[in-house]
């Protein structure tokens, strides 16, 4: 049985607060003493090379994977001792998201609404709004496999925001999506932030890093840079976020 640690005062006012968050797999340290503070309503970009530890960190913050060291609070709740409560406050679009292939788009939304214990009426109202915002209404009776990847990503995003989560974790939501669809996706992310959500998002596209209020860059389990895109460019004497990334992430 894990005993609750007394939360530090910052934990109550921050959307995400991690202190020395660590995850080992055997002898390998995937996430190594990560400290993070994300304020409510921020769009926070969580960048890093392949295998840097981003997905592992997100899974811990979503209460899906126990840390082996350190602690984090999400919306003031401990990810170690209140993981179930954390899961209800957040929305999570996983890197390898799964939609039900034998359910139509609207049935997928209905299913996720049920998972989040929404009432029948809430599901109907929210699904209609979300499908409209995501441009999915004309396809509501289609199966996911009949649609291009960008539309399946939109549906996966829709499923993760149905219950109006206070904090939204998006793990490479635009992976494999064309530039026009990526722009649409970011319009949506801004809208969600305007409506009051905190957005914690990973991406390998450095143009998308520029859309974030602040970003962190992770390398081999550690945060190696943190700040607004402009601050990081100044600090690293770089013109673009691509240059910043190449300077701080060593091969
Ligand atoms: N269950 C596991 N068991 C053993 N090693 C794991 C496990 N999960 C992740 N790892 C390892 O931890 C490291 C970090 O993986 P993670 O998926 O968090 O990286 P990432 O930053 O999300 O990478 P990408 O950009 O490719 O998605 C990798 O070396 C990975 O192989
Ligand atoms: Mg990942």
Structure description:
It is a single chain. The chain is α/β, with parallel strands linked by helices. It has one domain: P-loop containing nucleotide triphosphate hydrolases (Rossmann fold), CATH 3.40.50. Helices cover 37% and strands 24% of the residues. It is built from 10 helices and 10 strands. It has helices at residues 10-13, 54-61, 83-89, 105-115, 120-133, 149-161, 179-194, 206-209, 229-236, 241-248, and strands at residues 16-25, 28-38, 43-48, 69-74, 77-78, 90-93, 167-171, 198-202, 214-219, 222-227. Strand 1 (16-25) and strand 2 form a beta hairpin. Helix 4 packs across helix 5 (120-133). The radius of gyration is 18 Å and the shape is globular. Bound molecules: adenosine-5'-triphosphate and magnesium ion (MG).
Could you give a quick summary of the protein structure above?
With 251 residues, the protein is α/β, with parallel strands linked by helices. The protein is 37% helix and 24% strand.
